[in-house]
Recover the amino acids of this structure.
């Protein structure tokens, strides 16, 4: 199998809390994997290890077959791992273009910013990628004035701009309206059609079931089970999820 | 697919946006326009109230020799405040820098070495502030009160409270370059202030470092999630203020040819007032170099102006304090309107 991401035996502890216990998690190329589980199941910790934000206490991470060690967020992004965070990870007092290029500013030489190019690219992106003809026409608009869906759009465009191979979506539908959510799910399908890979974390099983190829259930820091969406009905999945939450056992 | 009819809702929202764009322009530059307005109004007031003083050439020569001492610190301090931090120790760092300068020069007679080590000592002391704040997680307000007393104490212990004469440096190229008078009038420190302003402006607006300063001050968690090296950025802003403080300390001392052990004690309030008056938000994420630059001249003129218009010098303290309170309160309001959803 051609895995873009392989995580083996990952454990992570925060003080008294064992967030992850010997977790194995793989993602095949061009797959959409849904990562579900209750609050505190370890979903966010697991993906923050992939993005270089957390370092695992033990275990190995391979990306494109290459072992990652001492990974930083900047390095992970360089490798082609981008994330759309639940909290949007925006700087609300800064302009749109500064947010798009946050942490990955385009520079000319010696770290000097290529402001013109960043502004131009931002204008192009808002029209071409997001079809934003509304609030975001200006690349120098302050992001704090945007609506929830527009902010989501900004963090998605940001992930796409850098030609990421693996796009991680952490609770992306939180705070979105119905139509924004529908648009978002279309976008996840678009990622797959474009030949890219994504991991979707969501509380809402309906959303995950609608777009994922495979669903991995995390519970209290361990993988409780996984299913191909084509092999399971939504009702069966819901029942299993409920049982896991109650007992910690799938079947 | 390509020929799309725009729906009326989008057209309306676009029109609304157009007007929104104008408001946004006003809102974005309001602070800078405002500060320039305040500056001109105050200037006009002083000229009317004390024409003999404020139309005299000498008055401006005096302003340009005294204001740079704190302007050179206020400009990089703007970056600290934008990053969401504060530094209260720079007055003591002025003294520690000049102490190093005086002693190295007395021991080696090497002026260049003394100057370089002055800058290095400022950098190290500033970096130490950064390390205490970032690595030990101490709020910068508290950490820099601590280092303020510590470094002042070091100066007092080493000098035993005795000042040192800088007369031996008189007539050197260094003194000429830092505090000489161009064409017999323009103080060199004014040129240095402009250079510092340009350097800080380029750093903040045209360099990755400055981009990160704004991001860190705006939302530290987001910056970290997106791969900004938050810790290094926070430490560096303190280190840069340290270098600037040592440099400003030397200018202040060379101007009077004397190193007083309490050098820098009078600069805390007016430097901070300049930064806040200039529109830099105490909550971080917002601030401009132009604002601080003009803020410095307003603050400097207030001192000369209050005395010249017949008020006692005691008023300046009151006015500085008032300026700090008003400008940070204004910011709290502006920020709530901007950041509020």
């Amino acid at each position: 199998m051609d895995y873009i991401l392989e995580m083996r035996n990952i454990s992570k502890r925060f003080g008294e809390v064992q967030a992850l216990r010997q977790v194995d998690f793989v993602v095949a190329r061009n797959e959409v994997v849904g990562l579900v589980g209750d609050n505190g199941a370890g979903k966010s910790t697991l993906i923050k290890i992939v993005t270089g934000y957390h370092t695992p206490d033990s275990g190995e991470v391979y990306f494109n077959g290459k072992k990652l060690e001492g990974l930083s967020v900047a390095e992970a992004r360089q490798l082609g791992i981008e994330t759309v965070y639940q909290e949007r990870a925006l700087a609300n007092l800064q302009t749109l273009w500064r947010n798009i290029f946050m942490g990955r500013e385009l520079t000319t030489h010696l770290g000097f910013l290529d402001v013109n190019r960043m502004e131009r690219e931002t204008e192009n992106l808002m029209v071409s990628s997001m079809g934003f003809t509304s609030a975001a026409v200006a690349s120098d608009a302050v992001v704090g004035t945007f609506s929830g869906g527009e902010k989501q759009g900004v963090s998605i465009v940001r992930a796409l701009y850098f030609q990421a191979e693996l796009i991680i979506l952490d609770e992306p539908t939180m705070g979105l309206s119905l139509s924004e959510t529908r648009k978002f799910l279309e976008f996840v399908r678009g990622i797959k059609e474009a030949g890219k890979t994504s991991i979707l974390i969501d509380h809402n099983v309906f959303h995950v079931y609608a777009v994922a190829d495979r669903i991995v259930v995390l519970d209290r820091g361990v993988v409780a089970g996984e299913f191909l969406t084509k092999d399971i009905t939504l009702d069966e999945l819901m029942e299993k999820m409920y049982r896991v939450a109650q007992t910690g056992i799938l079947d | 697919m390509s020929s799309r009819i725009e729906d009326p809702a989008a057209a309306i929202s676009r029109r609304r946006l157009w007007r929104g764009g104008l408001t946004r322009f006003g809102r974005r530059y309001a602070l800078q326009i405002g500060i320039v307005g305040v500056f001109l109004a105050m200037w006009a007031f002083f000229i009317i109230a004390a024409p003999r003083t404020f139309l005299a050439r000498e008055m401006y020569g005096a302003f340009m020799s005294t204001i740079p001492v704190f302007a050179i610190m206020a400009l990089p301090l703007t970056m600290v405040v934008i990053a969401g931090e504060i530094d209260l120790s720079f007055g003591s760092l002025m003294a520690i820098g000049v102490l190093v300068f005086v002693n190295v020069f007395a021991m080696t007679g090497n002026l260049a070495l003394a100057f370089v080590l002055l800058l290095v000592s400022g950098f190290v002391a500033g970096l130490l502030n950064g390390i205490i704040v970032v690595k030990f997680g101490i709020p910068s307000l508290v950490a820099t009160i601590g280092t303020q007393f510590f470094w002042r104490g070091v100066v007092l212990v080493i000098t035993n409270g005795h000042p040192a004469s800088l007369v031996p440096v008189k007539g050197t190229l260094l003194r000429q370059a830092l505090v000489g008078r161009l064409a017999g009038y323009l103080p060199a420190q004014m040129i240095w202030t402009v250079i510092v302003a340009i350097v800080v402006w380029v750093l903040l607006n045209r360099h990755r470092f400055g981009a990160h300063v704004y991001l860190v001050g705006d939302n530290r968690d987001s910056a970290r999630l997106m791969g900004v090296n938050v810790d290094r950025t926070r430490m560096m802003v303190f280190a840069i203020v340290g270098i600037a403080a040592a440099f400003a300390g030397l200018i202040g001392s060379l101007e009077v040819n004397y190193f007083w052990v309490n050098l820098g004690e009078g600069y805390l309030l007016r430097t901070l007032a300049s930064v806040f008056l200039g529109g830099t938000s105490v909550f971080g994420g917002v601030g401009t170099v132009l604002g601080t630059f003009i803020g410095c001249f307003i603050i400097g003129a207030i001192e000369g102006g209050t005395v010249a218009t017949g008020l006692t010098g005691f008023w300046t303290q009151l006015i500085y304090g008032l300026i700090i309170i008003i400008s940070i309160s204004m910011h709290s309001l502006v920020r709530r309107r901007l950041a509020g959803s």
Summary: Residues 1-9 of chain B have pLDDT under 50 and may be disordered. Chain B has one domain: 33-331. Chain B is about 75% helix and 0% strand. Chain B touches chain A at residues 6, 10, 13-14, 17, 20-21, 24, 28, 205-209, 211, 214-215, 218-219, 221-229, 285-286, 335, 338-341 (CB under 8 Å).
